[in-house]
Amino acid sequence: MDVLKIATAGSVDDGKSTLIGRILYDTKSLTTDKLEAIETRSKANGFDYLDFSLATDGLVAEREQGITIDVAHIYFSTKTKSYIIADTPGHVEYTRNMVTGASTSQASIILVDARKGVIEQTYRHFFINNLLRIKDVIVAINKMDLVDFSESVYEEIKADFQSLIGKSSYKEQHITFIPVSALQGDNVVNQSENTPWYTGQTLLQHLEELDAQDVYEKSQARFPVQTVIRPKKTEFHDFRGYAGKLYGGDFSVGDEVTIVPSLTVSKIKEIYFFDQKFETVGRGSSCVITLENDVNVSRGDMLVKSSEKPRLEKQLEATVCWMDGSSLTPDSSYYVQSGSACVLSKIKHIEGSIATDFSEKDISKNKLDLNEIGRVKIQLSKPLAIDSYSKNKASGSFILIDAQTNATSGVGFVE
Fold this sequence. Notes:
It is built from 7 helices and 22 strands. It has 3 domains: 2-209, Rossmann fold (3-Layer(aba) Sandwich); 223-305, Elongation Factor Tu (Ef-tu), domain 3 (Beta Barrel), CATH 2.40.30; 311-414, Elongation Factor Tu (Ef-tu), domain 3. A hairpin with a 3-residue loop joins strand 2 and strand 3. Strands 2-3-1-4-5-6 form a 6-stranded mixed beta sheet, sandwiched between helices. It has a 6-stranded antiparallel barrel with strand order 7-8-14-11-10-15. The protein has a 6-stranded antiparallel barrel with strand order 16-20-18-17-21-22. By secondary structure, it is α+β, with helices and mostly antiparallel strands.
């Protein structure tokens, strides 16, 4: 069964958690005890309706304040597809959480309160979707019941959002607008009689039709080597295989491959899935590959088709989202980890932070603070096989690891 990964984003009190809870309720994905707990808690809070946000807000602080703080992953299935929803916080102080939750998603749901329309936080949510190149974006215009299901309000918000699309790298066919009421269930799973002017699909119907292909879109094949397989058995004495996950494209037996960064050339001899051999491996698959030549390959190397070599760089220019309480400053040292490769680096230059409202204004400063996004130049201690993020998500992204604490301090996207 296909698995679709979805990120959600919305401002405080836009009803994001309620929307997810409604989907779980209408698809009968809530267990009996969970539903009883929601009923009991809703009555205790004085509500005469079911508070579906209780189905997703797991932290005590989230339930008390009615906001989302941490990233929660919610799982449910229909007859045709399985879903993983990353319920990410929308407030500016949790930008790093949103980037983390959305980084592996194929689709995104951005909530807009019908009473408030497109606001500053909506700009940032869409900016992050654009930065991460999430393929399909659904703009759920929520709380339509509070504006009497007005078509004019819906069209006005839609027009405001479309002005943002023109400033992004998206094409309009990848943006879908749906008027919903998460509290009452209008156009979430079931078609609403309150919006006769809306002839499109419900939210779930649209999700059911999305292509649940691997998050890493089809591009050039990249196989970061995770480990070298050398069985300690006499019958496999000469076996040397390379385990990893293939991104971007396909590999077949007989393909000529180049090992980077050494640029050694060989051919694929065998492809294994556990103890079974296959002629071809598709992107998104984990496997073991053997080569015809007895060449030197180790963890951190990458196998690529000889006709599709990546860049070998000792200096990176990247957009970085900073996730550490300590600021990112020039001349500081971090490990750059891309795939299984880990290289010591020094921050050479910080151009400043980027405004996330598509105004194209850069804030000139020589550091990045927590949750800020900016352009950074990084000097590497040795060459790293890399692609631009726009061409290959897997080999075009990296994390920055604090050399002193080993904490993940930032995430970068190669330009």
